[in-house]
Amino acid sequence: MPRMLDLSDEVRAEIGDEEADRLLAGQNAPGAYDCTSCRTPGDSDRERTSTVLFVGDETAVLAFAHASCLPSQIVEVAEEQLQGAVRSITGEAADAGVAPDSAAALGGRPEQAVLGVTSGLVLIEGELRPALVVEPTGPIARPGAAPGGGDDFLPLLIEQGFLPVTSLDGVPPTLHGWSVLLAVGQLHAILQPNAAGGPQVAWWQAHQPLQVTEGWRAAANKLQSVLLFAAPAGAIGRQPREDLLRDALDRAAGRGQLVACGMPLAGT
């Protein structure tokens, strides 16, 4: 019996037409499944279901999600992270781990910088809003610049559409084309437009899925968006509490060291 599957062109290209046709015909696709995003039951016989392909260095795993949670897409993950995804998808206990530092491509070039990403709830306009704070571990040079040329982290982000923030009194506007990817209830990546066209690519990707609190996840699901703040190295620091994180953001904004935007939420 044919399943109610959404299969994107990029997933079809990766798995091949023969396997894609078998899935759509219901031969290799499960009827009942646990959504890889929200982890609640789904049924591809009764509701639109997305095929999500997790791709590592050597292996790939096809998972299923409610179409209302995630679109059909390819999610590139580190090989070791894929093993954790496999355990989560199959219902086995996955090792809990927070790995805030990861590689991120800046300026559309393959040069890499190590970024720290912290999640927290920030009170703006009377409402707690889910936020991610991005801070490099050191200065970020413009791609192609000579060593020691200064820190271009904020100018690079402003060129990509982030806006300078002088206070946290208002909600920053949405940066279209970017999104925050949650899958299996954890933060996997910050996605940016693909300069060559096609599906979004990872601007930041966690080495291991980043844990978020239930309150953060509930707020993100309610608003369907996440605020992203970015500051140069040393401007924020690792803050153990959300009130201290807010204080650090206020200080960075007052010094002109903060940029921000809103991003749509992908997943739950």
Count of all domains:
2
Topology pattern, helix = H, strand = E: EHHEEEEEHEEEHEEEEHEHE
Number of helices: 6
- Large-scale geometry: globular
Give average pLDDT, whole number. 79
- Based on CA atoms alone, the radius of gyration comes out at 19 Å
Based on secondary structure, the structural category is alpha/beta
Query: Distance N terminus to C terminus?
Result: 29 Å
User: Which stretches are low in confidence, meaning pLDDT under 50 for 5 or more residues running?
Assistant: 85-113
The total count of strands amounts to 15
SSE topology sketch:
Elements lengths: L4 E2 L2 H7 L1 H8 L7 E3 L6 E3 L5 E7 L4 E7 L6 E4 L2 H11 L11 E5 L6 E13 L2 E10 L16 H7 L3 E2 L14 E5 L2 E7 L8 E10 L3 H10 L1 E6 L11 H13 L4 E8 L2
Parallel strand pairs: 1-4, 4-6, 9-14, 11-15
Antiparallel strand pairs: 2-3, 4-5, 7-8, 8-9, 10-15, 11-12, 12-13, 14-15
